[in-house]
Protein: N-acetylglucosamine-6-sulfatase
Amino acid sequence: MEPEQGRCRGGLRAVAGARTRRQGRGRASARTLSTLLLLLLACCVRCAGGAQPSNVVLILADDQDVHLGGMTPMKKTKTLIGDAGATFVNAYTVTPLCCPSRSSILTGLYPHNHEVRNNSLSGNCSSPLWQKGPESEALPVYLSKQKYQTFFAGKYLNQYGKKDAGDVSHIPPGWDQWHALVGNSQYYNYTLSVNGKEEKHTDSYEKDYLTDLIANRSLKFLDDRSPQHPFFLMLSPPAPHSPWTAAPQYQNDFGDVKAPRDGSFDKPGKDKHWLLRQPINPMPNSSLTFLDNAYRKRWQTLLSVDDMVEMLVKKLESIKELDNTYIFYTSDNGYHTGQFSLPIDKRQLYEFDIRIPLLVRGPGIKPNQTLQAPVLNIDLTPTILDISGVNLSSVNVDGQSFLGQMAPSLRNGSARPFFLVEYTGEGHPTTDPACPKLGPGLSQCFPDCVCEDAYNNTYACVRTLDSENNLQYCEFADSESFVEVYNLSSDPHQLENIVKKVDPALLQAMNQRLIKLQSCVGDSCRDIK
Ligand SMILES: *[C@@H]1O[C@H](CO)[C@@H](O)[C@H](O)[C@H]1NC(C)=O
Ligand SMILES: *[C@@H]1O[C@H](CO)[C@@H](O)[C@H](O)[C@H]1NC(C)=O
Ligand SMILES: *[C@@H]1O[C@H](CO)[C@@H](O)[C@H](O)[C@H]1NC(C)=O
Ligand SMILES: *[C@@H]1O[C@H](CO)[C@@H](O)[C@H](O)[C@H]1NC(C)=O
Ligand SMILES: *[C@@H]1O[C@H](CO)[C@@H](O)[C@H](O)[C@H]1NC(C)=O
Ligand SMILES: *[C@@H]1O[C@H](CO)[C@@H](O)[C@H](O)[C@H]1NC(C)=O
Structure:
């Protein structure tokens, strides 16, 4: 009943009011009062899942890892969301690349069901087919049917707003207020679609710094909202994505910070699939300088996101909505800086790229909880819809609500013991002119011509994680049908591929499970044995 708390509290306030008025007139019989009370309580129970549920705010960072200390600079966020609620230490994206991951967040679907394969229009990123299909029944559409007022600001999907993706006039259904970035993350010199109209920005910090603009517009939305409706805000800052442009006041922070040198940092990927056997090992100094600089600047850009979270929490407090609002903080994918000698990027199957931060506060969530159960980015939509009172059996999602994990007083919920991670590699049909020694088919070859992706960096994994097992089994769609297997209990940094050591019966069982997961839809994604 907690998510409808606002309503129930209103009901009880009405009871108290009725009592005062009745007593004012005298002769109020205790019996009438208790009947009234019972009726109102019954209504509270009956209407659970009905009107006036809690508000929801979803903050989605771009490329923020959790594995390499990505949350360390965000002290206020950790206090205001994590300490005030739940921190999920095993949160994962089902695909470690922006556009497919964001499409999963918005729909609750695995990539094989929303069919957004990469960051290009031809791979369905914000494509006309995505708009006609998955986007037309995404999260905000349901929330708007639940009478939520909805607000979006920031980066949406990498191809959003481009000519072939319907231009800035395309406003995805379900959004009442729309302030979306055209294209990929930028901090200055960008274009927004403001409710379907083009708005150009240059590079004045006071007027244009995108993270601050998102914060400011969300506060204004909260001031202007109509209090009869619950609200949903999705805030999607560019940080800590490249080009890592920090606000002027933060450009000198973390001067001594370097990328962490432990775990798989600069380790050779010797028994891994072919792409991981290419990096120069040990890394040249130029790569180290490049990645340390990226690491430091990423942290600097996050300080503005930390300020945004603080402003938002203060505003919710001042309008007296904080206690009736769920705030989710997460990222679309992880990131790496030097792991297995790969300079910088995401796109890999390893923990640093697939783990994401996830902090949630809100009604019914006890403070300071650290939760171990694995949860996925495809669970965000069902969880938010659960909070909003939507009957989940009527919704087409592959994920499941984790409201019960963080607020057991509100819902039952059991954790899933394993899940799918799937990725389609990006490549370039021609050789990169900056790296003439490399063949075609590769991409993201910088610095020092070390490539982070290729067409056949296409893989699917079963990640098993419960009290007994902590395993990863991955198959590549390359000419070797390469397999990687890790026991993360004994080898948390995935240094040793144990495919040749494990019982073939176990490999076969994992392969069977993977095949089922790769074609699962809805219930069958949650019920595989
Ligand atoms: C959470 O834990 C921290 C550190 O132990 C403590 O300072 C804080 O008061 C706790 N917060 C709540 C809301 O219980
Ligand atoms: C794009 O999505 C549509 C369905 O929305 C699907 O038919 C098509 O095959 C997808 N394209 C790719 C390249 O996966
Ligand atoms: C923004 O664009 C202007 C004009 O092209 C350019 O001079 C400036 O350096 C750019 N600023 C940033 C931060 O990229
Ligand atoms: C955001 O609002 C603050 C406070 O009003 C203002 O100082 C700042 O310039 C604004 N920034 C942007 C980018 O709108
Ligand atoms: C790389 O940097 C290290 C330490 O900063 C230095 O000792 C070494 O000589 C450098 N190597 C090259 C090839 O510049
Ligand atoms: C994205 O996916 C489409 C469809 O599979 C493919 O044609 C295109 O080459 C991919 N883009 C990149 C950069 O790999």
